Amino acid sequence: MYLDFFNLNKPPFAITPDPAFVYLSEKHHESLAHLIYGVTRGGGAGFVQLTGEVGTGKTTLSRLFLQQLPADTHAALILNPNQSPQELLVAIFREFNLSTHGTGKQLDAMVNRLNEQLLEWWQKGENTLIIIDEAQNLPQPTLEQLRLLTNLETAEHKLLQIILIGQPELKTTMARKDLRQLAQRITTRFHLLPLNRTETMAYIRHRMAVSSAAPQQTTTAEPQILSKQGVFSWPALQAVYRYSKGIPRLINILCDRALLVAYTQESPRVRYRHIQQAQRELHDQTSNRGYFRAVGLMVFMGFAVLAAWYLYSESNLTPVEHTKPMPTTSQPTMIDAPAVNISWQRYFQLWQLQPGLFWPNLDCPEMALTGMACYHKQGNLSQIAALDTPVILQLNNQTAVLLTGLTKQHVTLSTRQGSQTISHQDLNQFWLGHYRILWPIAPSLINGTIKQQRQWALSVAQLLAEQPELTEADLTGWIKTFQQQHGLHADGIIGRETQMALALKAYDGPQLNPQTNIGLR
To answer: In the predicted model, is pLDDT for residue 487 greater than 80?
Structure first.
């Protein structure tokens, strides 16, 4: 949408973690340095605790940390911590690509098997690390099991390092009396704070520079350069900080929407009024203003009646000079969205799923119902065009409509009465960028290890490239090229969005209709 208008290569404020856009404040740098030090023998073993409010960059920091791990480190990333001790051990075995054969998946047997493997790696000079994300959700018995795992040691060294990443509730959990033994083993604690005012402005400037299609200045001179040369004006930057409180995720959402607002108004700069409008739209303040709008409308109508009466009375006394009426401002085309379950039903039909499936919610349908993965994103039409598959759009009034066609200027929607084609600008009056995508997910992507996921990606790459001779050594380069061609960050990492894009290209699914046969209504 607004990328060409602002001379950008890719959306600068996508909320998905992207290493290319990483901006590290002083606190982030300090946290990352301690995390990296903590996995070496010089840093000791035990627990490291990293906490932060929602949206402060914990996930981004952990992704960057994983990329910078030493080559001699084995890492297991646990994304679902709400598991029993036995389930957690099974997940750790899976991440380390270890077999549970012969253990009967019994807790003691798996711990002994893990201890043997840790000793083997330690003798080779290799470190072992377990990262628990969303650790505030760990049950108490599972926390106790993690503590026991840190007892695995030689006469001189601990064999295992565990990093707990979570929201501030994790600090409260660790302060409980019954967990004091575990708390005493936490060797390093860090809490990520929101960005301050200066860091917020530098953060916005950094992301705009990374996504810019033309070179931008990268000096550290702060507000003066931003106010004179940046896309975001000085008052706009101040407003972003005031509304977001320096939380990166909120900054991204607000700035992305503000760019869209400025684009629809054909303004080359994002100004204070654009931030205000974006904030109102994102927080749906219509309910707070409804009463005042109604009162204002009644007052306006009252004055209109009085004015009409006055003009009528005057027309009987003096000739009235007729003037050319002022042109009226065109109203955006309304979207006649069907019931949510109807939009999902039509989407299921495009994927030729079993007839009769029923899903009445805006949220993604459960995988057990459809047999497919579903991804909830906030982005723009350019990203949807790159995926080239129909999606469910979530409109401002909490309705849902199926997008089936897309051109450079128009979209085709499956509405109550059939197909409706409207302009991008009209759509953006009712759509804040949220959409859901169905995609066929392979079993190895659900519970598989990183190695199994790469094996799946290699088979898909061989199919798409029509090169059966493609090898594991060629995979990262091929993935980077694929990511560049499909509007993804070309980092060679086979993350969820890359998995989705590969699956959508490999499987014979529905595509967006590029033809728009219906004029604007």
So the answer is: no
Backbone torsion region of residue 55, taken as left when φ is above 0, otherwise alpha when ψ lies between -120 and 50, otherwise beta: left
8 by DSSP, 3-state: which?
strand
Span 229-269, pLDDT tens digits: 489 998 899 999 999 999 998 999 999 999 999 988 888 99
State the SS3 of 397-408. Answer: CCCEEEEEEECC
Structure token pair of residue 236: 């706009």
Report yes or no: 427 and 411 within 8 Å, Cβ to Cβ. yes
DSSP state of 137: G
Copy the structure tokens of residue 81.
């911590």
Please name every residue paired with 418 in a beta bridge, in sequence order, or none if there are none: 415
Who has greater pLDDT, 41 or 125? 125
Average pLDDT on 171-193 reads 83
| Residue among 179, 87, 105, 90 nearest 136 (CA) | 179
**What separation, in Å, do the N-terminal and C-terminal C-alpha atoms of the chain show?**
21
Per-residue pLDDT tens over the stretch 351-366: 988 878 889 888 898 8
Neighbours of 153 (CB within 10 A): 15
> Are residues 152 and 160 in contact, defined by beta-carbon separation less than 8 angstroms?
yes
SS3 state of residue 440? coil
Regarding whether 201 and 180 lie in a shared domain, the answer is no
**Domain encompassing residue 386:** 333-521
Q: Do 240 and 376 fall within a single domain?
A: no
User: Could you give the CA distance from residue 416 to residue 342 in angstroms, rounded to a whole number?
Assistant: 9
